[in-house]
């Protein structure tokens, strides 16, 4: 489905010191695509089978109230809207990485929120190679933007690319295996000890794995400017190897709103109508 909608290409020639992937829309968004994205968004927040069991003997209103109160970020203020947009960006980044790169995204991080209107702490996303043994780990900082402007962080004004790089660098310089440690504990609680130890090894023996870093930007197409890459290119080479992916979408805000509204309706259809 994704490859019918998106073109995924390495930029060549590339004048920058990092590898660069351009992702753009090559086809109009069909209703089938919106349905696919909506289901992926719903499943990123909740296990669908669990929703079925919880609400099979309740009302449609009870389900909708639950989705609004506990699952999807609302649009009551700018912070909540930004969280909603950021969540969508992380979901879409994961779909692109899994489909076009063949990597494993080992956790639906958004399922573990305690507050639907707040972002999840820790590295935005990790991925690893498929297969029985993990050899390569990929760390992502994902940003979604409707507008491009200088952003102030600790009284320093940079483009979103620089701030994303510095956030990922800060994670790397600290205890950067929070997601792996969570997976170690989660699988242990489920008594999946082989899986638990696989992720525990990332925490205790991180040096044995090949580490990759990626900055992932999902941007309103009409707002994009190449300056954000020039600023990033001028930074010291602190993270290596580093990859940058630029996803340009037309009408990004409308897409986020449409997909979330559709996801709510899909939850109702799945739970009560068996669709």
Q: Can you give keywords for this protein?
A:
10 helices, globular, 275 residues, single chain, six-stranded mixed sheet, two-stranded antiparallel ribbon, alpha/beta
Structural description of this entry:
By secondary structure, the chain is of the alpha/beta class. The chain has one domain. It is built from 10 helices and 8 strands. The protein is globular, with a radius of gyration of 19 Å. It starts with a helix and ends with a helix.
How much β-strand is present in the residues? 15-25%
Shape: globular
Widest sheet: strand ordering: 1-2-8-7-4-3
Q: How would you describe the oligomerization state of the chains in this entry?
A: single chain
Q: How would you spell out the order of helices and strands?
A: HEEHHHHEEEEHHHEHEH
Radius of gyration, rounded?
A: 19 Å
SSE topology:
Layout: H1 2-5, E1 6-10, E2 19-25, H2 31-45, H3 48-55, H4 60-71, H5 78-101, E3 125-128, E4 136-145, E5 151-153, E6 156-158, H6 160-173, H7 178-189, H8 193-204, E7 210-220, H9 227-233, E8 242-249, H10 252-273
Parallel strand pairs: 2-8, 4-7, 7-8
Antiparallel strand pairs: 1-2, 3-4, 5-6
Helix pairs in contact: 2-5, 2-10, 3-10, 4-10, 6-9, 7-8
């Amino acid at each position: 489905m994704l490859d019918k909608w998106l073109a995924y290409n390495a930029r060549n020639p590339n004048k920058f010191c990092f590898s660069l992937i351009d992702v753009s829309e090559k086809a109009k968004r069909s209703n089938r695509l919106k349905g696919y994205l909506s289901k992926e968004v719903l499943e990123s927040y909740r296990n669908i089978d669990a929703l079925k069991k919880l609400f099979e003997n309740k009302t449609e209103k009870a389900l909708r109230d639950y989705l609004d109160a506990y699952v999807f970020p609302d649009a009551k203020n700018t912070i909540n809207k930004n969280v909603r947009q950021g969540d969508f960006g992380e979901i879409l980044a994961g779909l692109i990485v899994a489909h076009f790169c063949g990597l494993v995204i080992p956790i639906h991080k958004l399922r573990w929120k305690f507050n639907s209107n707040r972002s999840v702490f820790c590295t935005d996303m990790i991925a690893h190679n498929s297969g029985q043994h993990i050899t390569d780990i990929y760390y992502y900082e994902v940003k979604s933007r409707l507008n491009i402007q200088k952003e102030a962080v600790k009284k320093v004004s940079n483009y979103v690319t620089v701030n994303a790089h510095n956030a990922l660098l800060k994670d790397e310089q600290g205890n950067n295996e929070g997601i792996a440690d969570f997976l170690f504990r989660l699988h242990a609680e489920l008594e999946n000890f082989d899986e638990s130890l696989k992720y525990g090894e990332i925490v205790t023996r991180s040096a044995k794995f090949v580490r990759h870093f990626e900055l992932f930007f999902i941007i309103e197409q009409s707002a994009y400017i190449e300056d954000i890459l020039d600023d990033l290119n001028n930074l010291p080479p602190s993270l290596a190897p580093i990859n940058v992916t630029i996803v340009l979408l037309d009408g990004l805000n409308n897409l986020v709103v449409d997909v979330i509204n559709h996801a709510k309706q899909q939850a109702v259809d799945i739970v009560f109508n068996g669709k």
